Fold:
Amino acid sequence: MQAGAANGNVKDQGFNFVAKSVFKNKEDMAYYETECTGHYEFKTFLKENAPVTALMTMYFTPGYSYNA
Structure:
């Protein structure tokens, strides 16, 4: 997992923090979303301590890479 402050036009839409999780496959992602107790506890902590007014979740298959 990587996380940090958002940059660019997403801040204009109210998104100021980004977290990126990388999974081996879609099944592992589904487990994390639906069965992982650690993820459940993390979401519960955020709901109770840092109310979120908007949330965007997406997944993609990498097709291109860029290293500066």
